[in-house]
Design goal:
Elements: H1 3-9, H2 35-42, H3 57-70, E1 74-78, H4 81-90, E2 98-102, H5 107-119, E3 123-127, H6 135-138, E4 143-149, H7 161-170, E5 174-178, H8 183-186, E6 196-200, E7 214-218, H9 223-226, H10 254-267, H11 273-283, H12 286-305, E8 312-314, H13 324-330, E9 339-343, H14 347-356, E10 361-362, E11 372-374, H15 386-391, E12 398-402, H16 408-419
Parallel strand pairs: 2-3, 2-4, 4-5, 5-6, 10-11
Antiparallel strand pairs: 1-7, 6-7, 8-9, 9-12, 11-12
Helix pairs in contact: 1-3, 3-11, 14-16
Length: 421
């Protein structure tokens, strides 16, 4: 089936009531037929509902449908995009290990990897996404994950996915890609060798800024990379916390299963059934919206590129952009999502422009149907030093735009009056 068809039908078999819309199963727990049935569920002899911290019928549809869109084997829904990133990394690494991350990451991802995970004993090492060859010098026998974004936020760079995954596979290391900005509609990381993707479902998945949530997806056949791999002994040895289960020995996608039975069970960062239902609604128009977001962003980027007050426009759909070649290779039909950024002369000039807009809302979010404007250096990346801001592509004069679904003409008109105010 084509992607748009999957977005409408995948993962849902109509219940006994024949409901066309996926029901919201707002329940904490589920009744077992008898003691044997309960025991079989807990031992994985049977698959079914146990407790909504582990699984839920509505969330199950969300996970299956998203995995289908991404082209993966299985997915694990979480309470936020940040928890999806944490689970993807913590599922592979432990105290004493290290991960290798792109410098060009969302501000929250930078603080999680560089600071929060450090307190768990996991070291983050950083490379320039434009120089994947730097990864080689950072790898050692304790490296467990290479983490980057397919389309970076807010520097708007496009990673050379195949170059990074080639290095990772050479050393038998897992790659984790945040595909939030590109979405499965525009970028298919598994087709270029990626092992795991993560998303903030709060962004383009819901599409209207309605709910917080995240999701982690593993590629098909990942078990072959994990099985017998000395870097990931905990997937190949009995799990004392779950009846001695060996994750690579059972016929279920192992990365998602361990994330569910270990991390989701013990840390509890679960998606609520209602939020999962909202994400399902958003997914039905996923592909239609992403085309419109991309169309608006390209038109606005072309306008900004020609404006004398704009020093630089970051949008890979522009032929003049240094990421254009990668965008043509990795993105469907050359569409580059609704996120762009542009740089003006100073912090003062950027502040003036942001404050002068009327149609754009000053919000620290992306992927909404309404257009959003943000000054990253004073908000999402405020915790970084000037040197760190420059390193991750966020100078003080940078303005980020998440193009919504308004009229292109109106978006350009509002930006014109703000630039000339």
């Amino acid at each position: 089936m084509d992607l748009q068809t999957k977005a409408l039908h995948a993962g849902y078999e109509k219940d006994t009531q024949g409901t066309m819309a996926v029901p919201i199963y707002m329940t904490t727990a589920y009744e077992f037929r008898d003691v044997e049935h309960a025991a079989n569920l807990f031992s994985l002899k049977e698959l079914g509902n146990i407790y909504t911290r582990l699984n839920n019928p509505t969330t199950d549809v969300f996970e299956k449908r998203f995995a289908e869109l991404e082209g993966g084997a299985a997915a694990l829904a979480t309470s936020s995009g940040m928890s999806a990133i944490f689970f993807a990394i913590a599922n592979a690494a432990e105290a004493g290990d290290n991960i290798i991350c792109a410098k060009q990451l969302y501000g929250g991802s930078l603080t999680q990897t560089a600071h929060t995970l450090k307190r768990f004993g996991i070291e983050a090492r950083f490379f320039d996404v434009h120089k994947p060859q730097q990864i080689e010098a950072l790898v050692d026998d304790k490296t467990k994950v290479i983490f980057f974004e397919s389309l970076t936020n807010p520097s708007i760079d496009v990673a050379d996915i195949e170059a990074i995954t080639a290095i990772a596979n050479k050393h038998n290391i897992l790659t984790v890609v945040d595909n939030t900005v590109a979405t499965p509609v525009l970028c298919r990381p598994f087709e270029f060798g990626v092992d795991i993707t993560v998303h903030s479902a709060s962004k383009y998945t819901t599409g209207q800024g309605l709910a917080i949530g995240g999701i982690m997806v593993e590629r098909k056949g990942l078990v072959d990379k994990l099985k017998g791999n000395a870097r990931y002994a905990h997937f190949n040895e009995p799990d004392a916390s779950y009846h001695g289960l060996v994750y690579t020995d059972i016929p279920l996608p192992p990365y998602s299963l361990r994330g569910r039975l270990s991390l989701l069970r013990d840390l509890g960062a679960v998606s609520s059934p209602f939020n999962s239902w909202l994400f399902i609604q958003g997914m039905e128009t996923f592909s239609l919206r992403m085309r419109e977001h991309s169309k608006n962003a390209l038109a606005l980027a072309e306008y900004l590129e020609a404006h004398p007050k704009v020093k630089k426009v970051n949008y890979p759909g522009l032929k003049s952009n240094s990421n254009y070649e990668n965008a043509q290779k990795y993105f469907q039909d050359g569409l580059c999502s609704g996120l762009l950024s542009f740089e003006v002369e100073s912090l003062e000039e950027a502040t003036k422009i942001v404050n002068a807009t009327q149609l754009y809302s000053l919000v620290v979010n992306i992927g909404d149907s309404k257009s959003i404007i943000t000054h990253p250096a004073s908000t999402t990346h405020q915790q970084l030093s000037q040197e760190e801001l420059i390193a991750c592509g966020v100078p003080s004069g940078l303005i980020r735009i998440s193009c919504g679904l308004e009229s292109t003409k109106d978006l350009i008109a509002d930006m014109e009056q703000a630039l000339n105010a």
